[in-house]
Amino acid sequence: MLKVLLLFLSLLLSLYADEKVEIFSSNMTSQGNIVKATGGVTVVYKNYFITADKAVYDRNSSELELFDNIRVNKDKSYKLLGKYAKLNIAQKEKFFKPFYMSDKESRVWISANNGTSTEKLLDINEGMLSGCNPVDPLWKIEFSSSDYNSDSKWINLYNARLYIDDIPIFYMPYFGFSLDTKRKSGLLMPSMGYSTNEGAYYEQPIYIAVDNWWDLELKPQIRTQRGQGIYQTFRFVDSATSSGEITTGYFKESGKYYTDNNLQNDSHYGFNFKYDNNDFLNQWLGTNFEGQSGIYADGSRMNDVDYINLSSNDVRNSSTATQVLSRVNIFYNTDEHYVGSYFKYYQDLKLVSNDDTIQKIPTLQYHYYLNTFLQDHLLYNLDVQSNNLTRNINKTALQTDINLPVTLQTSLFDEYLNISYRANVYMQHSSFGGSEQNPTFKNKYNDGYIVRNFHTLAASTQLTRGYEDFSHVISFGVSYNKAGTQSSNGYYVDNEAICANSQNQDDARCEFYNILDIKEEAQVDFIQYIYDDKATEVLYHRLAQKISYGDTANRYGELENELNYRITDYLKFYNNLFYNYEETNFSKVFNQVSLNKFGVNLALSHLYKDTFIATTTEVPQFTSYLTSTLSYTYNNHYSFSALYNYDAISKTAKTQEIGFMYKKRCWDFGIRYSENRRPVLTNDVKSFVDERYIYFTILLKPLMKANGSSNITMQLPNAN
Fold this sequence. Notes:
The chain is mainly β.
């Protein structure tokens, strides 16, 4: 113990005061300025904790040499191992040979011939890097030299070669990445592939993150036989309650591809804007309103559908829709009042021009929340909406709706029976603008209004009974509607005879006619619930039937049945159907089964609809559509997936896919085969393309994240 103490004191006195080094060992010898320590040597220097079998210290040069079984721990974050190390205390340099470093947080290790470090930088020569088991790693990156910054935790590799199980895969003259979880500027994982129609595909995302409140992602891409383009997304957080993003893109077609495929446009461009603010009034105006204010914006604009198709090389990440809705919602809400303004803009990507598409710019709404009077026996509320229905050609309209329901309610027989009467007052006013191109309809758009009231009587009861393992709740209700007085003029009188018939909805005169007849009818509702002993819903069942008293030919409306049954903890069934008595057939049947057990996750659904209207090109009479997804996890390493969507009417598979994923601690590998029908805008009648893809997914952990894997895509020849 005395030898250890003498060694510690001698070293402490010989070093600089701000560079204190503590050395402990069980054996020590000293000859002149050379001090040798053996037997469990431990060195504590700044935030380094070093152990070795032997140490030699030179007081003159301030060099400390360590030998055999060297382990270095810095801030409990990474370890360096080797047979020989030299620390120059005066020059603040450290040398290791051979060199081995293991980062605790990222689990990445580096093995090299030697490494030299200064205060923050570490230079490494001739080594390899991996996140796998050091014994026979599944993947590794060999390099000629490397440098690492311990503060930023950024590492650069030069002349890097990627190996998968000793097979060379890819060469990179330079490759840099971060071992930290904080976001940093740099190159993200690329996406690449090959298509027989579009040639080789390569996309290299570039990530820029300078400040905490914003970042920018640039995604330039090239398709060798089709063209090149770039998409960029700017994300920002401008306050504690608001954030947004702006995405723009441009792609230029090559002349040959544009001509051969008869595309409508030789370039594709557009933008997307999203913004969400949960307290904009107080934030922007410096007020202190108690109510809640908000803005939600989601806007898109593009010249054709290929702007979406080209944004990604994976159809899962860029599902293509032919209808695009842009909207901005602004509101202020209190306990009693709600004021809102909504802007909606529709774009049909199948059309060259949307000049005839009706837009809602804007809708203004005021709502007075439900209030009570006479000890909660009288209920009332008010809703006012004004819609500005505009477009570039043909007629436009400004429509205002006012709804004022007043309800009188009470309970009887010790609350076993609830009864109510509701008086509904409704008004709509329309004023028209624009010019109608069809001369036949020019005199059919006179300003007008409709005012009417109707009455609703309702009675309901609800019973609950508990059992040993479950509880049962049933509810039964009956309501009766009857029209009251009505007054109308202008547009509503001129077009009522035509537009009141649902089969004339495509008539241009009925675009603004949304008035439904108030029928004298009753509705019967039966609802039951079953809950288990943990208060979890096991069964929900609802039956609803309308009975008409004014239309004796169609006395009974469609019978609706809805069932949601949790058969077991892992098996569920849902059904919703409508039965039409007049047609003696179902107008809608929807069934869905879901299973999640034994590693299997299955969702299977089928939708059938019959409009009972003769088939037209735009609105087919029948719909029969099957959707299914299946995934199976065999164990922690192997999983399988499948997807199939089928249109039984057109006898067309809309989407079908099968995939396999192999996962290990340090890497994932996946392959998927996918077929997809994608809409395009061409000069031909045909407006879709059937595509087939093979996707390869490679995830090298921890260098890549689950959502940042390197995707290699191969597009097979189009099916059509």
